[in-house]
Design brief:
By secondary structure, this protein is mainly β. The protein has no helices and 43 strands. Strands 14, 15, 16, 17, 18, 21, 22, 23 and 24 form a 9-stranded mixed sheet that branches. A 5-stranded mixed sheet has the order 6-13-11-8-9, with no helix packed on it.
């Protein structure tokens, strides 16, 4: 540390960054207090750094030019290799090397992901490797060239460089192609390989998914062994339109075989792009699309299964059959927003889509479509919006869908009924033993009428608290069917029969107690026993409720 002065107190140890051992260099003074040292006792090699890096990945396209440094991507991944990469948050320094008859190294520092430039000037195959990482990975490095696991990077003195932007499936975009070769006087520089009109052959290679039924198109021509007549300008560049109507990562290969003055010249090149869906479409069989509480708008009971179908759609309105076949497979998530009642609860949907390319029964079906069983545990009306589960299609951009603005109406699955008050009959006379004359009308005792407490429950037995909000509470006292007993339940006549009883039930009322809970009570009851029973009269009630 040039020009520095170091002074320590007692019991101090000077060590390197991260606890590493080493010497100390200073041009000033170093003053150590008592019991101090430089480096720790028994200090040897630097201590191991704890790491969560499972492996490193080298991502490249398999081809390079000797006149142009090749760019490769390095990922530090925390997950076991499965084709994906969960990027580490550790900052790493390491060497990226291409080795053939020569060797070129680029030392880079990055966090999670970084790039290295490899200026390899030999026209041959070189092997990519990593070394001297500041944080060692638990498992070996994985190389991927866009198609297969391979660390081979083939350099050529001439070739094509294709540039195609990531885009929405079905859209037409412009691709650029650059024909270059190594400058004979300066091998480290690229110059135009040719100018003018040339017939270039193109082929489509599906990378992720690895198979597909559609090829890249240009002006309606399928680029699957098809030649395009391109006009290269003075810089060796040309442009042409392409359109891909499916989704995934696609490799477009270019090849030129010379004739005439170009006889014997073979030039190769390729470029990749990702085509993502334009949007998702939902279909919900049986959905009433209710906008308010009206008769005939009940869709499904809270917590019960209902079916949702989703399709991946391109910019032309067609289904993209390859969606969901990626490695790792992309999928769709659903988000709800409460439409009604106002200020009600809005829990998320439960459930998930099955595999894309399967119908609702799990049988093979056309690609780009999926089906799932979902449940919403509340009462009300919601909107549902689909979006990409990963948030970035194959690492590029998000995809959202067409919102279904009204789904419902969701209603209670059933009502839980509790007898809060059994009721007490008012006797005719209470002077000594309470009694009533045979055939005399009896009524409920004031303040002790029968009362039922009801809760609107979903299919899981949870209270649907939205039920008593707004006008979603549709149950009235008249919806409760009451059937009174026709005889006493304890008193017998001389013949050994239960005393017959005739009952007239009068309508009570309904009052809300709390969210989704309310009571039904009965104002009066007229009962006419045919003889004076020796015990208080009891009654059985049969309760039936219709949901709507």
């Amino acid at each position: 540390m040039a020009g520095t002065y170091i002074s320590t107190g007692a019991n101090t140890t000077l060590r390197g960054i991260g606890g590493a051992c080493g010497g100390l260099y200073a041009t000033g003074y170093v003053t150590l207090g008592a019991d101090n040292s430089i480096g720790a006792a028994g200090c040897g090699a630097p201590s191991a750094v704890d790491t969560d890096i499972d492996h490193y990945q080298i991502i490249h396209d398999g081809k390079g030019l000797t006149c142009d440094p090749e760019t490769v991507t390095i990922n530090a991944c925390t997950n076991a290799y499965d084709g994906s990469c969960t990027l580490s948050r550790e900052t790493v320094t390491l060497d990226v090397t291409a080795t053939g008859s020569g060797s070129v190294t680029d030392r880079i520092r990055f966090t999670g992901t970084g790039t290295a430039r490899i200026p390899y000037t030999f026209a041959e195959s070189a092997i990519l490797s990593l070394a001297n990482a500041s944080i060692a990975a638990a498992n070996p490095t994985v190389c991927f060239n866009g198609s297969i696991i391979s660390c081979d990077l083939v350099f050529a003195e001439s070739g094509f460089s294709l540039t195609i932007s990531n885009h929405i499936s079905g859209q037409e975009v412009q691709a650029s192609i650059l024909a270059v070769k190594t400058d004979e006087e300066d091998p480290g520089q690229c110059v135009p390989a040719f100018t003018g009109k040339k017939d270039i052959e193109f082929n489509t290679v599906h990378q992720n998914p690895s198979t597909g039924t559609l090829a890249v198109e240009s002006g309606g021509d399928l680029l699957s062994g098809h030649r395009l007549a391109l006009d290269f300008d003075s810089t060796g560049a040309a442009r042409f339109p392409i359109q891909y109507k499916d989704v995934g990562r696609v490799l477009l290969k270019a090849r030129y075989e010379g004739a005439g003055e170009d006889a014997g010249l073979v030039m190769l090149g390729e470029g990749t792009f990702v085509a993502r869906p334009d949007h998702f479409e939902l279909a919900i069989p049986g959905n009433k699309a209710a906008t308010s509480v009206q008769d005939g708008t009940a869709f499904v009971a809270a917590g019960q299964d209902f079916e949702i179908r989703v399709s991946s759609i391109n910019a032309l309105g067609d289904v993209t059959a390859n969606f969901g076949r990626e490695t790792l497979a992309e999928s769709v998530q659903l988000k709800t927003a409460l439409v009604a009642p106002a200020d009600g609860g809005s829990p998320p949907l439960a459930g998930a889509f099955g595999a894309f390319g399967e119908d609702c029964s799990g049988n093979a079906a056309s690609g780009g479509r999926a089906c799932g069983q979902f449940q919403w545990p509340e009462v009300g009306i919601v909107s549902i919006m689909p979006s990409l589960l990963s948030g970035r299609y194959l690492g590029t951009a998000d995809v959202v869908g067409d919102q279904v603005a009204h789904v419902g109406r969701f209603i209670p699955d059933w009502f839980n009924i509790v007898v809060a008050e059994h009721g007490e009959v008012e006797p005719y006379c209470t002077a000594s033993t309470a009694f009533a004359y045979m055939g005399q009308n009896l009524h409920w005792k004031t303040g002790v009428q029968p009362m039922l407490t009801l809760e609107a429950w979903n299919a899981s037995g949870d209270v649907t608290r939205n039920y008593t909000l707004g006008n979603f509470q549709r149950l009235l006292a008249t919806d409760l069917v009451r059937t009174a007993g026709s005889s006493d339940v304890t008193a017998f006549d001389a013949a050994g029969n239960l005393f017959p009883v005739s009952t007239t039930l009068e309508l009570g009322g309904c009052q809300s107690l709390a969210a989704a809970g309310y009571s039904i009570y009965f104002r009066s009851m007229t009962r006419s026993p045919t003889a004076k029973p020796p015990n208080p009269v009891s009654c059985h009630w049969l309760r039936t409720i219709a949901l709507s």
